[in-house]
Design a protein that fits this description.
The chain is α+β, with helices and mostly antiparallel strands. Helix content is 42%, strand content 24%. Residues 7-82 form the Ribosomal protein eL8/eL30/eS12/Gadd45 domain.
Length: 83
């Protein structure tokens, strides 16, 4: 899975709420969404990314995405704010 952008990002958001806020503010460059995340949590993120033309990368799991974000818990979504 291509986590390079996320790992090297100078600024990023972690979690569905923070990611959604960053997208709404026009700050998100790339969004990562875990494949095993609850659909009701990530569906609004998918929709707004599609409407704004933001690239979405599917992460293999919430555990892997959390690890790529540098946290010890699972994570449904994350966004790169500044590369």
């Amino acid at each position: 899975m291509a986590y390079e952008l996320l790992l090297s990002a100078r600024k990023k958001t972690v979690g569905a709420k923070q990611t959604l806020k960053a997208i709404e503010r026009g700050q998100a460059k790339v969004v990562y969404i875990a494949q095993n995340a609850d659909k009701h949590v990530v569906e609004p993120i998918f929709r707004i990314c599609a409407s704004k033309g933001i690239r979405v990368i599917q992460a293999e799991s919430m555990q892997a995405l959390g690890k790529a974000c540098g946290i010890e818990v699972r994570c449904a979504s994350a966004a790169v704010i500044e590369e």
